[in-house]
Amino acid sequence: MDNNTHPSRGLNLEAARLRPLAAFSVPQSCPSPRILDGFEIPAGTNFIIDSYALNIRDPFWGVDREKFRPGRWLERHKSGRDLRYRYWRFGFGPRTCLGKYLAELIIRSVIIEILGNWHVDLEDITAQQKDMVEKDDGKAGDEKMSWPWDDETWIHSPQLLIRCRPLTGNAT
């Protein structure tokens, strides 16, 4: 499972790319003067990383950058060096989270366990949930689930209900 070509890797990374845990990084301070894209940044300047700008809005991810496509992580032309400053999840460089590799291994293990032993479905929209449904222009078929805005984290979270049923003969 530690193989970088295992499908669980793409599922994990793509889900985190499209729905990052935090919209912004913890504020940091520039240790020395830098020039970034022609702009001078003095030492001591505080900055944050906008995970949406890197993970989703960057043209690097292609025309389908807003779509869930786990296979993009298995493409040969995307090396670790290419991704270094285009994907933010656990930080960069010396400030990278120490638990990064363990967290990724645990997440992948849980995904494999669930998908290997359970049939997972999205629940149908209930009457209660239909109150949250937006209509674009009132035409039939234009309904979509609303994604409420969380003012404390700046994260859009879909109101999804998931049903899990044990696969025959695999229940634990």
From TrEMBL:
The keyword Heme applies. InterPro entries: Cyt_P450 (IPR001128), Cyt_P450_CS (IPR017972), Cyt_P450_sf (IPR036396). Keywords: Heme, Iron, Metal-binding, Monooxygenase, Oxidoreductase. PROSITE patterns: CYTOCHROME_P450. It holds the Pfam family p450. GO terms for molecular function: heme binding; iron ion binding; monooxygenase activity; oxidoreductase activity, acting on paired donors, with incorporation or reduction of molecular oxygen. Transmembrane segments: none annotated. It comes from the Eukaryota. The keyword Metal-binding applies. Its cofactor is heme. Belongs to the cytochrome P450 family. This is Putative cytochrome P450 monooxygenase. It comes from Rosellinia necatrix (White root-rot fungus).
